[in-house]
Amino acid sequence: MNKGLLIVLSGPSGVGKGTVCSVLRKKMPDLVYSVSATTRSPRQGEIDGVNYFFKTREQFQEMMACDALLEHAEYVGNCYGTPRDFVERTLAGGQDVILEIEVQGALKVKEKFPEGVFIFLVPPSLDELKQRITGRGTETQDTINHRMTVAEEEMNLLSHYDYAVVNDEIEAACHRIESIITAEHCKASKYLAELGELPAAIEKA
Amino acid sequence: MNKGLLIVLSGPSGVGKGTVCSVLRKKMPDLVYSVSATTRSPRQGEIDGVNYFFKTREQFQEMMACDALLEHAEYVGNCYGTPRDFVERTLAGGQDVILEIEVQGALKVKEKFPEGVFIFLVPPSLDELKQRITGRGTETQDTINHRMTVAEEEMNLLSHYDYAVVNDEIEAACHRIESIITAEHCKASKYLAELGELPAAIEKA
Question: Which of A73, A110, B161, B199 could in theory staple to B118 by disulfide, Cβ–Cβ 3.0 to 4.6 A?
Answer without folding.
Answer: B161
